[in-house]
Amino acid sequence: MNDLLHCRLMQWPDDQAAYEAAVTENPANAGITTGTRRKRSVFNYSKLWANGRTLKIAFMDSPEAEHKQKIIDAASQWLPYINLSFDFVDDLQGDIRIATRNNDNSSMLGTDALLIHPDWPTMNLGVKPEHEDFEVIVIHEFGHALGAMHEHQHPQANIPWDKPKVYEFYQNREMNPLTREEVDRNLFAPFNTVDAIYTSYDRKSIMHHPVANTLTVGDWQVSINRKISKKDKRLMKLLYPK
Ligand SMILES: [Zn+2]
Questions:
Q1: Which residues keep their CB under 5 angstroms from ion ligand 1?
Q2: Contact 149, 44 (CB under 8 A)
Q3: Most exposed residue of 45, 63, 119, 206, measured as fewest CB within 10 angstroms of its CB?
């Protein structure tokens, strides 16, 4: 199993602050589900950027030109399916701020990036450009930055996890070990955002982690999804309509 493909999806811990940032950025985040009070109590608010805007994306630590271009090329694979523009800059300031000089692959979820101190990155792309799945990881992290959740946590996923084995595996791995709580949050907890209503579970989604057969009960696994799936495209078109 490839540890590098396991990213950390980061969400701002203060839910009220995250809600206010999301709604200030894009008022539709408050009621994008249905607008009725009953549904809003069931489904969470969204963390989508204002539709139609340009996202300034900063390279904070000046990666090599070739490395940078590979990130730009991978991230730009989302552009045909969203009504946003990307403006990549060599700067310390951006709506999304990328750091590349560590081993972590992580991103803030959508507008939660607005709450990160401006001196800190909102996305870590520790994967090295020569890694065979560099492109996959960059696309995946940008999916989070656009507001996409982890597909393996879709409420319809019903993955037959062997939970004790999963905890043990993640706690003991060398790179990016996860605590029990982090495993719960990153693998098991179902999400209840807009994705859950409009699109059904898709085990081919690029937002799905690989799932090793050894970590499930019975014969169940998902290998690495290397392409933006049909469902991924449909979801992004729904989130950022043109
Ligand atoms: Zn992820």
A1: 7, 9
A2: no
A3: 119
The pair of three-digit structure tokens given for residue 231, joined into one six-digit string: 């469902």
143-181: pLDDT as tens digits:
999 999 999 999 999 999 999 999 999 999 887 788 999
Ligand 1 geometric centre to CA of 144 (Å)? 7
CATH code of the domain in which 219 resides: 3.40.390.10
How many angstroms does the Cα of residue 87 sit away from the middle of ligand 1? 23
Q: How far is the CA of 141 from the centre of ligand 1 (A)?
A: 6
CA 73 vs CA 8, 79, 204: distances in Å:
22, 10, 21
> 167 CA to middle of ligand 1, Å?
18
- Name the residue range of residue 90's domain: 3-239
pLDDT value at position 175? 75
Residue 3 alpha carbon to ligand 1 centre in Å: 12
57's tokens: 């994306």
pLDDT digits (tens, 9 = 90+) for 15-41: 899 999 999 999 989 874 444 544 444
6 CA to centre of ligand 1 in angstroms? 7
Rounded to two decimals, the pTM is 0.92
